[in-house]
């Protein structure tokens, strides 16, 4: 039995992976190619430099109805389900690549019976010319010793691709939250515009009735009646259009949520939804962009491309594969598992690339080009993020002044319309002055509602472009500076 144990030890040692060198290029994060801080001065708000962290959507969107809708969208949205499916697919590919790091054993068992008509007595000593063979074995099939890190580089590439896909899910969730909030505020604004149109229809209808009565009394001409009808018909047309738009807004919101939305969950108006928005923290610097999910995804993609260079370089060097078989064979089932029935064999094959027609060199050039493309895409992703945040900050710096001006304009237009209408009723002014005042008020009310939407959308854009911190548990995606290779593999559950 001691000899048997020694044989098993020898074969087990042959199956262990031999640590080899890695031919992967040393990874260094590319410079972001953007300024260290966001623009200041002019339309931009004053931002003290600090390491502010991404905010949670519940800190910005404090409307309980909107929070409920966002939660349902994160659970039901079909585009997000596609992204989650991609994560499961990448996880499977990672496990397949990781499996190549370990030997694969296969167990076999069999029995055969043969009759030799020309033999006087069988090999087994029973049944005349009948031969019986029983066997049970375990084999090691072509396990590659990773001398030059090809298998490990391939596994590292698969790991980074998996992490990039997980970061992509976070990016999809961030986009979904932004689109859902934007659709919510768009619906609220269109409901406000519809209410303004309905209010204007009622006001214009009263003006038409008054003008018609004065026309019948011979006080005014027919022109005043026609002028009064213009604002009425315009408001009626807007009301019909906005009725359809509100229905379309609701359909768009339900598509994002992935389920019907009840009337109780819908905003009544932008005037009721807008006050439930909170301001973003004022202290920001551009380093926050490195945590944005699409930037994280781009860096993991770059790391994967860097690892594939190591695998391509290893193709130029020899490869060694181990094979082995241990088991038992006997012509009698009862004596199968005995020392006399033990059998084993092992071997090693070495392959050296002699001539491949330039395949390996072309493969290396391809992987190097893909790495260069990934570097450019990583930098472009950061530059795009910087532009998006800078543009949103430029709007944020002036939106308060714009809103105050629109509010003052509506108040002035409302007062002008009241005075003009009173003067027309007293016969002091013609209806044209009242008509102009009513049109100005109608436009001012619409502009104020749309300015509220711009303010809400600006905060949605800032939240989305700065990157949310609450969409994926922190432990589910390793940060870009996390330990690589086997340390990450061992740490994954």
Question: Gist?
Answer:
Keywords: Lipoprotein, Membrane, Palmitate, Transmembrane, Transmembrane beta strand. The chain is an alpha+beta fold.
Class, according to the CATH hierarchy?
Mainly Alpha
What oligomerization state is this entry in? single chain
Helix percentage range: 55-70%
**Main β sheet profile:** 4 strands, antiparallel
What does the overall shape look like? elongated
> Into how many domains do the coordinates divide?
1
- By DSSP (H or I, 4+ residues per run), the number of helices equals 11
Beta strand count: 4
CATH architectural label? Up-down Bundle
SSE arrangement, N to C: HHHHEEHHHHEEHHH
Low-pLDDT runs of 5+ residues are 1-19, 119-127, 471-493
Distance between the termini: 39 Å
Gyration radius, rounded:
37 Å
Provide the β-strand percentage band: 5-15%
CATH topology: Outer membrane efflux proteins (OEP)
Largest sheet strand order: 1-2-3-4
Describe the structure.
The chain has eleven helices and four strands. It has a single domain (31-101, 146-317, 361-491), classed as Outer membrane efflux proteins (OEP). With 493 residues, the protein is an alpha+beta fold. It has helices at residues 2-15, 57-60, 64-76, 78-99, 150-216, 222-257, 270-273, 293-314, 359-425, 431-466, 486-491, and strands spanning 105-115, 130-145, 319-330, 342-351. It has a four-stranded antiparallel β-sheet, covered by helices on one side.
């Amino acid at each position: 039995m001691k000899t048997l144990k020694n044989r098993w030890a020898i074969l087990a040692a042959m199956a262990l992976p031999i640590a080899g060198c890695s031919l992967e290029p040393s990874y260094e994060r590319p410079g972001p190619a953007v300024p260290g801080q966001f623009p200041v001065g002019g339309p931009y708000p004053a931002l003290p430099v600090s390491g502010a962290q991404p905010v949670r959507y519940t800190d910005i969107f404090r409307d309980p109805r909107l929070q409920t809708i966002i939660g349902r969208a994160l659970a039901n949205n079909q585009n997000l389900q596609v992204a989650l499916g991609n994560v499961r697919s990448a996880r499977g590919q990672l496990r397949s690549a990781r499996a190549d790091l370990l030997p694969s054993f296969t167990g076999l068992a069999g029995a055969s019976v043969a009759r030799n008509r020309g033999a006087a007595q069988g090999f087994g000593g029973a049944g005349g010319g009948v031969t019986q063979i029983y066997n049970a074995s375990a084999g090691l099939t072509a396990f590659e010793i990773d001398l030059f890190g090809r298998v490990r580089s391939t596994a590292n590439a698969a790991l980074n691709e998996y992490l990039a896909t997980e970061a992509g899910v976070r990016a999809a969730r961030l986009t979904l939250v932004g689109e859902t909030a934007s659709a919510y505020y768009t619906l609220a604004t269109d409901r406000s515009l519809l209410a303004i149109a309905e209010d204007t229809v009622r006001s214009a209808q009263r003006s038409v009735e008054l003008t018609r009565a004065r026309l019948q009394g011979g006080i005014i001409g027919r022109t005043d009646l026609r002028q009064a009808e213009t604002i009425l018909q315009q408001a009626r047309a807007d009301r019909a259009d906005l009725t359809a738009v509100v229905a379309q807004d609701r359909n768009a919101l339900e598509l994002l949520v992935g389920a019907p939305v009840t009337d109780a969950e819908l905003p009544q108006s932008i005037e009721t939804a807008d006050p439930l928005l909170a301001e973003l923290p004022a202290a920001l610097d551009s380093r926050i962009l490195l945590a944005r999910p699409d930037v994280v995804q781009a860096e993991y993609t770059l790391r994967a491309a860097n690892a594939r260079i190591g695998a391509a370089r290893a193709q130029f060097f020899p490869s060694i594969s181990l094979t082995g078989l241990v088991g038992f064979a006997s012509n009698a089932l009862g004596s199968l598992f005995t020392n006399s029935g033990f059998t084993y064999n092992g071997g090693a094959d070495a392959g050296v690339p002699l001539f491949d027609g330039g395949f390996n060199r072309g493969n290396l050039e391809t992987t190097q080009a893909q790495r260069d493309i990934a570097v450019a895409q990583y930098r472009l992703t950061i530059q795009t993020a910087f532009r998006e945040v800078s543009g949103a900050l430029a709007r944020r710096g002036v939106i308060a002044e714009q809103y105050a001006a629109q509010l003052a304009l509506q108040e002035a237009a409302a007062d002008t319309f009241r005075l003009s209408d009173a003067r027309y009723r007293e016969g002091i002014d013609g209806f044209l002055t009242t008509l102009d005042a009513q049109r100005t008020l109608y436009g001012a009310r619409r502009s104020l509602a749309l300015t509220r939407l711009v303010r809400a959308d600006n905060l949605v854009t800032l939240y989305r472009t700065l990157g949310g911190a609450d969409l994926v548990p922190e432990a589910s995606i390793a940060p870009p500076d996390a330990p690589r290779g086997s340390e990450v593999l061992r740490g994954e559950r």
